[in-house]
Amino acid sequence: MIREFFLKEKVTPVSLTVSHKGELFALMGRDKIIRIFDVSTARIRRKIDESTKVLINLFQIFFLKFNILISKKIIQFFNKIIKRLPLRHRMKNIQITSY
Fold first, then answer.
1. How many CA atoms lie within 13 A of 92 on its CB side?
2. All residues at 6 or more sequence positions from 44 whose CB lies less than 8 Å from its CB, including other chains
3. 57-67: per-residue pLDDT in tens?
4. Which residue has the higher pLDDT, 21 or 95?
5. Which of 19, 35, 49, 55 meets the CB 3.0–4.6 Å disulfide criterion with 24?
6. Rg of the chain over all Cα atoms, to the nearest angstrom
7. Contacts of 25 (CB under 8 A, 6+ apart)
């Protein structure tokens, strides 16, 4: 049944891992998708896409959130500095904000 699945999908398996209890096994194909199978039914329980495109998207999301966080921290830092300045050194109504 597993062999037919990979023949139908036209994917060559490159890696096999079996769970320590022997209930599940995972196969990774050349398409970089990990397929987790149930041993008793030989059916797919889950697919995990490990392709480069998916990983690049995850990194982009991570760095976008990281940049937003850093930007907020920098803005907070400069606003604290501005508030500590003596009034004569401050410009009227100055406050740093992000867009």
1. 0
2. 35, 36, 37
3. 778 888 878 87
4. 21
5. 19
6. 26
7. 16, 17, 18, 19, 36, 37, 39
